[in-house]
Amino acid sequence: MPISSFYHQIFFTNILRVLDERRMTQEELAERSGVSTSFISDLANGRANPSLRTMEAIAVALETALPTLLESTDLDREALNELAGGKPLQSLPQGYQRVSAILTDYQAFLVEEWDEVNRKRLREQASLKKKATVR
Length: 135
Description:
It is built from seven helices and no strands.
């Protein structure tokens, strides 16, 4: 499966999840986003190929950040690897992983603090690696 199909799968799975969480219909999403009901239906059934502009309109209508709709998923690692053609997708160094979770406000605060520390650490490691390559 091409990588773009992988992200489309995650995108429409997340759309369906958010619609369910908000008790919102596909018709309401179509009305709020300015995207046709038939396209929303095709998207929910994995038959549409949305442009970046369409994805952004849907994200705005769902009051959800677009990267969240593209990166976060309730699919387990095995299902994600299967979608990626049996090859694990790894954009983070070994020992790090992205997770999706439902948290209390306090738990989310702690996770955001940890995220900030780890992102800073990864930026520093990348900077050191880049400097070592230049020499």
